[in-house]
Specification:
By secondary structure, this protein is an alpha/beta fold. The protein has helices at residues 9-19, 25-43, 83-89, 135-145, 161-170, 198-203; strands at residues 3-5, 49-55, 60-66, 70-76, 94-95, 97-102, 109-115, 123-127, 130-131, 151-159, 176-181, 184-185, 191-192. It has one domain (3-44, 69-203): 3-Layer(aba) Sandwich (Rossmann fold). 31% of the residues lie in helices and 32% in strands. Strand 12 and strand 13 (191-192) form a beta hairpin. Helix 1 runs antiparallel to helix 2 and helix 2 crosses helix 3 (83-89). It is globular, with a radius of gyration of 17 Å. Bound molecules: 1-O-pyrophosphono-5-O-phosphono-alpha-D-ribofuranose and uracil. Uracil is lined by residues 130, 132, 190-191, 194, 197-199.
């Protein structure tokens, strides 16, 4: 499955705001929110819908209604920032949460929380802004797949080539939607050029 890097000029503008070290948490959250809306739209462009007919004030015409089969699964903590923008677009989405945290030394992600809705037959959108080593996303998608979704889509704000390679190796059926494909990881497994620690910048915890 493919890697989809957004080509919208607003995406590049907002990503630049996120990268800028002088951007305060309030502006970071605002840019992150709009960017998540764009990525959510792009990642759901092929959602199934059913043909319906609709009565306009003048006549009956053909219309389309989305099938109610979407689930969103943010990876805590930073992925939470991507949930509200998705919920605004798709208010009836089922929501699950997976809590994963990377060890500061090894960058290995360990699970501290998992609560998922019924996923069988659904399209599950996994939300995590940073795809670095890919360990967190790979682990989360493994848990999501246990619920038997129809398909899984990964949405990240910034992806490292190492993370893309890992995810495509472990979950080749999962397309990745991102705002930017960066150069590489540094020795501490942070993305270069990246934007630093997304969660810390969102919540002012650095
Ligand atoms: C960050 C980020 C991802 C993960 C990506 O989370 O939000 O979940 O790192 O790294 P990986 O691809 O190498 O697994 P972090 O563990 O810092 O937790 P946080 O969201 O609570 O800040
Ligand atoms: N998590 C982040 O928040 N930033 C990185 O660069 C890598 C993982």
């Amino acid at each position: 499955m493919g890697l989809h890097v957004s080509t919208h000029p607003l995406t590049a503008h907002l990503l630049t705001v996120l990268r800028d070290v002088t951007t305060p948490p309030s502006a970071f959250r605002s840019a992150a929110r709009t960017l998540s809306t764009i990525l959510s739209l792009e990642a759901t462009a092929d959602l199934e819908s059913e043909a319906v007919s609709v009565q306009t004030p003048l006549e009956v015409t053909k219309g389309s209604r989305l099938e109610n089969g979407l689930a969103a699964v943010p990876i805590l903590r930073a992925g939470l920032s991507m949930l509200e923008p998705l919920l605004e677009l798709f208010p009836d989405v089922a929501v699950g949460y997976i809590g994963l945290e990377r060890d500061h030394e090894t960058a290995e992600a360990s699970r501290y929380y998992c609560k998922l809705p019924k996923l069988d037959g659904k399209v599950a959108v996994c939300l995590d802004p940073m795809l670095a080593t890919g360990g967190s996303a790979a682990k989360a998608i493994e848990l999501i797949k246990e619920g038997g979704p129809k398909r899984v889509v990964m949405v990240s704000v910034v992806a490292a080539p190492e993370g893309v390679e890992k995810l495509q190796a472990v979950h080749p059926d999962v397309p990745i939607y991102t705002a930017g494909l960066d150069r590489q990881l540094n020795p501490n497994k942070y993305i270069l050029p990246g934007l630093g620690d997304y969660g810390d910048r969102l919540y002012g915890t650095q």
